[in-house]
Amino acid sequence: MFFNEKSFLKNLTPIILFTGLLLFSGCLGKLPSKEELKNISNHTASEIYSSDSILLGRYFIENRTNVRFEEIPPHFINALIATEDARFYHHEGVDSRSMLRVLFKTILLQDESSGGGSTLSQQLAKNLYKRKPGRFEMLRNKIREAMIAGRLEEVYSKEELLTLYLNTVSFGEEVYGIETAAERFFNVKPKDLTVAQSATLVGLLKAPTHFNPRVYPDRALQRRNVVVAQMEKYGYLESAVADSLRSLSLELEYHKITHDTGLAPFFREMARLRLMHELDAYNQQHGTNYNLYTDGLKIYTTLHSRMQLYAENAVKNHLADLQKTFDNHWKSQKPWDANPNLLKDAVQNSERYKNLKKKGLNDDEIETNMNTPVEMRQFSYLGEEIVTLSPLDSIQRSLMWLQAGMLALNPRNGHVMVWVGGIEYAFFKYDHVTSSRQVGSTFKPIVYAAALENGMQPCERFPNELVTYENYEDWTPRNSNGQYGGLYSLQGALTHSINTISAQVIMEVGVDKVMETAAKAGVTGKMPAVPSLALGTAELSLLEMTNVFATFANSGIHTAPKFLLKILNKEGSALLDNTKPTPTQLAMERTTARAITYFLQSAVDSGTGNALRNQYHLTNDIAGKTGTTQDQTDGWFIGYTPDLVCGVWVGADNPQIRFRTSQLGQGSKMALPVWGLFMQELLNDKHFSYMKKSAFPNPEPSLLAQLDCPMYKEKISFWEKLFGNKKDDKSKPEPSRKKAEEQKSSVKDRIKKFFGKKEK
To answer: Using a CB cutoff of 8 Å and minimum separation of 24, what contacts does 289-294 make?
Structure first.
């Protein structure tokens, strides 16, 4: 029996007319009006950009951005029309011949997946107004889409319809629109797509999952060649060109940016939270309803994509090596062997344990569940792994990962250039840039800055000796290397990070003065008002501490960190313009800041940071300070050049997980290498070659005179110890001389010290 088109149409016409009448009357669902169609508004992703105009990521419900018709290459349009709707320019929304074929399959053959009869206008209608599921809804859906397609043709030109279609169509993998698809599969803008690439993307539209070029490259290649053949058939390609295209490989450059992947994910999440707050404030003030996920906003930030990439590479490369050292260090032992509560607490704080508790399982049932192997995703430096582990083994494995935080700022304007919150956002979402940890010796420059601000001379010498402070629970600060003896100037004590002298300095200056200096320089967190603050017992964030060092680098002028520059709506109007210079305040005298920089240059050249010279062979101007907290829990290095301040923290999420020796766990071994690797990459990039020649300002002659003394002296004379060893106070500027007079110890006090009396 042969299919008779005329007979089929005659029998089907009453059904179509009746269904169409019901649709038109609204009985089977409301049709969108022409006015509504004129104001179609897609959910459009908001985009966040770096300072060098690189797309960092998107915030979306549907991963889509819109393009103009002029941005779509003609060969893409040709491929689309040749494959999907050859008579696109000749119909008014519906192709009757194709529709008959689809209706025949749908009604007589009951083929729910029938397709090929929909014009691009009908497909657009389907994209905009979702179908109702079910075999018996197919006819209704088709007729409804045909009627909407007709209205769309009345409202829009053919070019506008093509643009709207290509901005709404799905390419699979939760990718909507040509721009997002071009970026995902080929890492290019639509205008830069080749004919072969365009044919590949058009081929996806038939069945995005089935023809996914990443998952099924052979299918995608075959389908691409079908599209090329269609372009040849309808005269869009000459045969010779089509033949050459069919011989090409797919050549994907897969580039997936999700919330968990891509460049700077920790930064994007931090920005998301801030953006939500900014938009809420704007909406309340202006009576608007802007939505970060649907309104296609453009967000411009201070982050530099090249710097960020180098920073992420430095963290990954060093932490991968350090993790091997850490695992080998513990071998068959584990930190919870001596402290079972460590593991017990981790288990009870896990999501799995909490869910099992909610389900009412008893302890034995939970233990069985936690010890039963299951297939799961696990992090590794070689890439995500699918492994079979018990939940308990997984928790133990997670506890032993070392983490890192890294932040870089422009010291002159506070712009955030780099933000690395951890080793892998997809698995570890805790941000170590904003989290608080003990800061160790990175706090010492603040102590010495407070001393200089309050009149102490740079060349005043202190004995490197054990002192017990009875009024502070017999606190006896000790040096990490266990060495004592001799005398150090302030520069020498900071260069070699001498704990005993830092304690003496804070006792003489006063804890309150040190805390005041810290707050002015950028510390916003709570500090313990005790002398041990000098050794870094405060728990502060990497963001705060890097900002403090930026104050030193900026000659004592404090500038709050800034990361957000502009928020623009789809029309290009600014919802937020933060491009004006950030207000600043003088946190300390310029001579104080420059003296600290001078001290910290010495720490890099000949002190705790000298690996930057010896191991990483950096020759540019660098100032910096390492930090190691008690029991090697936290490793720090914060360093700066005249152009950039960068802080690094390394440790485990749980402070009880750590190296057991200072040789392995000190900041110069845990954190400084990240800084060194980062700076090497940066200076090898021609875009940042200027940093090689940047120099810190020379200290003023008066300051140089004050700094002109040995950092270390083996012995001290009787008269120096009795009467002090400060230089003539007249060498200091007038305001500091007055402070110096106020701070001088009496001869009586020095005599007590000389004869060995303990500090009261």
So the answer is: 290/569, 290/575, 292/46, 292/59, 293/43, 293/45, 293/46, 293/59, 293/60, 293/61, 294/43, 294/44, 294/60, 294/61
